[in-house]
Description:
Helix content is about 20%, strand content about 20%. By secondary structure, it is α+β, with helices and mostly antiparallel strands. The protein has a 4-stranded mixed β-sheet with strand order 3-8-7-4. Strand 7 (about 115-120) and strand 8 form a beta hairpin. Mean pLDDT is about 80; it is low at about 170-183. Pfam families: DUF7919. This is DUF7919 domain-containing protein.
Amino acid sequence: MHYPDLEEYCYADPKSERYAYFELRTRNIGWLWSDVPFEQGTVPAEVTRKLRDVLIMGSFREEVLQRLYPSCTAPSDFRTEIVRGPVLPCPLCGQEPVLDLGVGLPVYPQLALGRSEYAIPNPGRSLFYVFPDLLLHYIGEHGYRPPAVFVQALEALDLCGGVVVETLMSRRRPKRRLIQRRA
Length: 183
């Protein structure tokens, strides 16, 4: 599913034909689709590493994070949703990418991408950028370049600040139908 970058984020629930909105301001980043063109270019290696850390911190238990980030006393969790069930393949190439941690952990040596979405705040915490975990794959394999404001937010992000995005983004259930099917 494609959503334009920096457009307001909303979560579509096809079963109830409703949208759920977040109380805080949100913007889409990196919701790419095969037949829709996207910005391409280079992304600084430090930004890519930080994005990788964001995905890792939202995916593993505290004891694993302590081994991966021993100097981080309060790792943050930026994951907002996890999809149960099969991994969604990349809509651009059809692969089911994995993030290889590259460390000697006894469990979880790889993280399947295509199952979760994450959110990071802008430096002033006045809004959140919501993106799929496939964003790392899009940048590395397809040359996607996120908007500059998102890159700046990643650069300014404190990974060890103990932020748990789910508690900052209190989700409200919708009160009215926004989509109606025609018979």
